[in-house]
Each structure stands twice: as structure tokens, then as C-alpha cells.
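Please go through the sequence and C-alpha cells given here and tell me how the chain folds. Record follows.
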Amino acid sequence: MAHSSEYHVTSEIFIVPHEDMLILYAPLKGIVARINGSTAALLRDLQTGSSFELTPQEIEVLKPLEEVGAINGPPDMQLIVHEYGEFAPTHVTLFLTDACNLRCIYCYACGGDSPMPVQIPVEAARAGIDLVAENALRKNMSTFSVGFHGAGEPTVAWKLYKELIKYARHKGDEIGLQVSCSTCTNGVMPPEHAQWIAENTQTATVSVDGLPYYHDLQRPRRSGKGSFEDVRRTLKIFDENGFFYAIRATITEYNVHTMGEMVEFFDDNFNVGDLQFDPLIYSGRCQTTGCKAPSDDVYVQEYIRAYEIARSRNRLVGFSCLSFTSLKTFYCCAVSDGFTVTHDGYVTACFEACGPDRPFADVFLYGNYDFDQHTFNLNLDKLKRLQQRHVYNLPFCQDCFCKYMCSGDCPIHSMKMGYNMERGARCEITQMVAKHRLATIVKESRPDAVVGFEEVRCND
């Protein structure tokens, strides 16, 4: 007769209740399985070190977990953290301007409101490109990357946008590396600009808030006129050129009930790559327009409906604080190796903290370009403190089954909610969506004839 002391749980195992089922999830072993109550109780007893004799049925139950190493196997792998590494980014994001041709009713940066809009100093932008290119060369990489984003719309600074892309290409040619250029854009631009982007850059993320009526409501032009037809024209040009782009939609109380229809609309009318539907975080222009996020329950209900419609079309709808395709310890570049040069020549780890007057700039702004010395002044100690925010260091996350999918959620949003970066701001939404995702995996897997396991799936 085998004894419990012969069986050691050597992987993180979570028992996740969802509706009428119990799901076993061992993220670092790639296991998702439907189990019964007896198996759940057995695993909990083993995890707590209880002493008991195992029945033959219990021994059979544990065999699949032994085979994949969750029981009596090697320790879990350790995922990457950045706090111990060298600061040598190979991607730079350039905020070209705070000017904007739209007045989105929720814009976190209040883009376009400045009476005296500015553009990024060319010298600072070029220095940012040089830095990441040379880091990539030193690391024996084949590619470095440049992203265009901003407190405003980057393509409004069109001459500068083209100039910097050409400069990045020239830099790549000079040192024998490829460059990948990506753009976050509102899609409102002349047709010839859309054509140039399709021919001269690699990817784009286009902000589109769904069906035309709701997009026009949430993302009007500066004049108040809707912007959807301009965006439609841009997307069609991208499609004609086979250009890869993703669509990101902000979900508010206005458009939340149309999320399923949004999937159908985008899928039927455009050759869009990825779809991402994120609930609004109250900030910026929301304070004057009154734009609000949907309730958590309504968002999750409508997200799941959209998710199922997407699956029926062989698509996936993403959600920013839940990774479905990879596991990680940190949420975003703000707590890893974020290197963003702003329109004012500052260096920030977080897109939202893009100037000294922005909320929490003292936390995320860690440098500036020195025009006298022609280099960046960087406070890397401040960046190292940010890099300590990963799931291994977040007590609130330790017992959460989706910690490697969510990675503590957005740090600046946590601060806005008063959590001081100690936990995520959207834990309830994240967990509800993650449970549905795991349940979907279980329901679509093939039954395995093992006592105690109703269904088993292992990822290679």
C-alpha cells in the first residue's frame, strides 16, 4: 500500500471552481483538466502534507500527474523577470506629438487640447533609435523595433513620422540589421498616408470602437463630426495591400452591448488580424464628458458572448489584462524594459505617464534627453524599482490561478484605483474571463479514461 509521503506536489496546482465543474490548472506544466471532488480533496491533502495511506484508485488518479511532472517531477520553471537584468532595450516607442485630429470622449491624455502642441525633438528621437539599434547589434539580434504612439495622433506629425522611419531604416542598413516599425493610430488620415504606411511599415494597431454609430459617438473629429468613414477608408487601403493590423476597441457603457456584433462586423468587412476589446479606465477626458465604463458583470457577460461568436468564426478576442497565448511575470513594458521618448523629450516607462504634469509621472518618468551632452540622462534605479513589480513579488497574487496570465494587471491603473501597485485593478473581471477560457479548453478536449479525471488536456 502506497503512502502519501511518497507523493510530492512539485508544481503549482490550482483547483478552480466554475459553474458545475472543478478545473485543475497547473500553468507552468501546461495542464488544464476537469476533475471530480474526490480528486480535488486528494490533491489538497497532498499539498498540505497530510499523512495517509492511498487506495489503489487514488494511485491511478495520480498517475497522469506523475507522467507530466506535476507530482514527483522536476521543479517548475522560473519565468523571466527584469529586475536582475541589464538595461539594454531593443525597442523604442516615440511619442511624436500631443496634437490630435480627434477628440475622443475618454482620451487619457486629452490629446489635442494643448493650445501650443509640440513635436518630439528630432535629435532625441534619433538618439532613441540609435540606442536600441546598437543594443540589438551588441546582443547579436537580427532586428530592432521602433513604435509610434503618443499623447496625440502620431500621423498628424506626418513629415516627422516619415523622416524617422527612413532614419531607422538607414540606421539598420548601416549596421546590418532589420528594423520593424509599428504604429498605434486612430486611422484618420489621407488615403496617400495610409498607402505609405502599408508600403513602408510592418504593423499597426488601429483604434476602432465598433459599429459606426458608437465609434462616431466615442471618437469624433475635432469639429464634432464622426470619424468612422475615414477609418473605414484607411482599413480598406490596408486590406488592399495585405498589411497586418490589429483593432483595439475601448468598451464603455455606450457600446458594451454591441461587442458580439462588433466581432461580426469586423470579421465580415475587414481583413483584420487581432481584435482586443478593453473596458474603459476612467481618466483624462472622462472627467469632463462623463463617459463611464460598463459594470464588471455586464462587461464580462458581453465579452464572453463576443468571445464565443469569435470562436465560432475561428477568431480570438483579446483582453489586455489576460494573456491567452503566453505566461509571464510582468504586465507590460512599464515594469520591464519600457523605453519611451515623449514629445517633450522625457523618457518614461509608462505611456500614460508621458510628461511631468501627468498623474504618477514621479513614479514612471525616469529620464530625459540631454541636448548639451547629446545623450539620455536615465535614473535606472527608479526603473529597477518598477521592475520589482512582478508576480513573484506581489503577495496579493500568490494564490491566484491566473497570475501568470494577468501578471498583476496594469500598474498605473492599480495606482489610480488606490492600490499602490500592490494588486490588479480588475481582478474580478480577469478571473471571470479566465475561468471561462479554462472551461472552454476543458470542454473541447477529449475524455481520458482515468479514474478521477473527467477530461484531461496537456499542452506540449
